[in-house]
Design a protein that fits this description.
This protein is mostly helical and 144 residues long. The chain has a single domain, classed as Tetracycline Repressor, domain 2. 64% of the residues lie in helices and 0% in strands. It is elongated, with a radius of gyration of 17 Å.
Length: 144
């Protein structure tokens, strides 16, 4: 049983594509180049910690979108020479488990963003990016 749970955690992490999280580090660029990397305003948390929180949230968000994209494209991915080895397409990761993890990830990000006032700009980006990414996953990317 423990082996199976560890295996599912590994497959979920593999499907979440952690190597793509490095792109989220670009959120630090404005702080670095503006000189505000370690600035702390009098009335709130240090900018560094707000951006770190945003990087973590974006990582969960993008991973959830990757899972949903893999679920939507599972039939096509099973025919693709490289994508057929992905955990969902190969059948190693059960579809209901992947869907549950993706929806929990989206809900977690939404809950955490909405409940922290200092993250309002991130909430706006989240509310814009999620539907756009889901639309792209569903149909749009087939045309490009």
């Amino acid at each position: 049983m423990l082996y199976k749970s560890r295996r599912f955690v590994y497959l979920i992490l593999k499907s979440a594509r952690p190597r793509q999280w490095i792109k989220n580090l670009a959120l630090y660029a404005p702080l670095f180049f503006s000189g505000f990397l370690f600035f702390k305003p009098l009335d709130g948390p240090a900018y560094f910690w707000i951006v770190t929180y945003a990087v973590l949230l974006f990582s969960v968000l993008t991973s959830s979108i990757y899972l949903i994209n893999d679920l939507i494209d599972v039939k096509e991915d099973r025919q693709h020479p490289f994508k057929k080895h992905r955990p969902i397409a190969s059948g190693q990761l059960p579809v209901p488990l992947a869907l549950t993890v993706a929806l929990l990830g989206l809900a977690l990000v939404f809950f955490l963003v909405v409940n922290f006032a200092c993250l309002f700009p991130i909430a706006v980006v989240h509310l814009f990016c999620t539907p756009n990414a889901l639309c792209y996953s569903h149909q749009t990317h087939r045309y490009f």
